Amino acid sequence: MKFFILALMSVMYTDPSTKLDYEQYFVFHTPHFYSIDDCKEFARENTELLYVKIFEEYGLSNSPKMISCVNEDVIKTILNEQRERLST
After folding, report:
1. Domain residue limits at 38
2. In terms of pTM, does the model score above 0.70?
3. pLDDT by residue (tens digit) across 40-80?
4. In CA terms, which of 6, 21, 64, 87 is 20 to 30 Å from 38?
């Protein structure tokens, strides 16, 4: 099973058509890992680099409230939920 680094952002996304708030995620697709321990170790040792990438994507005003290692099933679930929201 593959593991990925996932950042949960502090600022919510508001869907203009429904006015519902949704959490924003940033998935680091690379690197990926084959053990949760390797993923956590990389995240701890490279926290500064992870934040730099997140700030490049979201800006300084939307910092992550959580960075975690999750398995590929969690990523698939999140992406499927986002696709469903966008298609309705």
Report:
1. 3-87
2. yes
3. 999 999 999 999 999 998 888 888 889 999 999 999 998 88
4. 64
